[in-house]
Specification:
Elements (H helix, E strand, L loop, with lengths): L3 E4 L8 H11 L3 E6 L16 H15 L3 E5 L5 H15 L4 E4 L15 H29 L3 E6 L12 H21 L4 E8 L5 H13 L4 H10 L9 H12 L10 E4 L7
Parallel strand pairs: 1-2, 1-4, 2-3, 4-5, 5-6, 6-7
Helix pairs in contact: 1-2, 1-8, 3-4, 4-5, 6-7
């Protein structure tokens, strides 16, 4: 039986979600790609969300490369009804769901703690923590119904284990995501569903480039100084690639990882080691 994977936040070119989707398709999965589908002001800017055109282009590229079935769905993860519709789409289109990758995240509403905007805080916590909880809770019954267990992979961050100035809400949301990962693993293990997190360090995607620019200015450094300092902290001497995270996800979805659950795997070139 072909496994079906739902990956959220997967439309942006050269992003983590796109790389994860391509890797799982190469491993033989059929894919349901999700992204928000449209920009909407500062809470959903062009450098932060994937639009419908990107989503369809990514789906077409993966279909052509792998021959797998790839479908798309849009929805705002701040909307509980939209989340229900996303999971329902997996059932309607494929009749099953085996893998859920909670990849979508708000990693662009940064700023000083003393200037926290409540609307920004709600958006970060809503997409990064509330949405994975709701998606997992609604996806699990489909996995249980299938009778073959399942995999839930939460894309956390190095910020799930270490603090970062000017990213308090983001860091808090990712720390919370690890707590959810561990609790969900306890609840769903009896059904053969593993729940794990992957914790990448910085990856210079399109969003990552925006983060580099923001953080270097916030620290009073040139972009070159900021990037040199980042690389100097990484034992393997380079920042992460989308494929590094995709490889970790593929492993956690494989049979070799069937006895691994409740874990938070660092993919950081040695920068994050606890």
């Amino acid at each position: 039986m072909t496994r079906v994977a739902l990956i959220t936040g997967a439309a942006r070119p050269k992003g983590l979600g796109q790389a994860i989707a391509a890797r799982l398709a190469a491993e033989g999965c059929d894919i349901l790609l999700h992204d928000r589908g449209a920009v909407d002001g500062e809470l959903a800017p062009a450098h932060g969300v994937g639009v419908a055109q990107d989503l369809e282009a990514t789906a077409r590229e993966i279909r052509d490369a792998t021959g797998r079935r790839v479908e798309t769905v849009t929805g705002d993860l701040l909307d509980a009804e939209a989340i229900s519709a996303i999971v329902a789409a997996a059932d309607e289109l494929f009749g099953r769901l085996d893998i859920l990758v909670n990849n979508a995240g708000v990693g662009y509403l940064f700023g000083p703690l003393t200037e926290t905007d409540p609307a920004h805080l709600d958006a970060v916590l809503g997409v990064n923590l509330r949405a994975p909880m709701l998606l997992t809770g609604q996806a699990a019954p489909l996995m249980i119904r299938g009778g073959e267990g399942g995999r839930v992979i939460n894309i956390a961050s190095q910020a799930a284990k270490s603090g970062f100035a000017f990213a308090s809400a983001y860091t808090a949301s990712k720390h919370g995501l690890l707590g959810f990962t561990r609790s969900a693993a306890l609840e769903l293990g009896a059904h053969g569903i593993t729940v794990n997190a992957v914790c990448p360090n910085h990856v210079t995607t399109g969003l990552g480039a925006w983060q580099n620019d923001f953080m270097s200015k916030a620290r009073g450094e040139t972009l070159e100084q900021y990037m040199d300092g980042m690389r100097a902290r990484i034992p393997l001497g380079r920042t992460g690639l989308p494929e590094d995270t995709a490889n970790a996800v593929a492993f956690l979805c494989s049979d070799q990882a069937s006895y691994i659950t409740g874990e938070a795997m660092n993919v950081s070139g040695g920068e994050e080691y606890h």
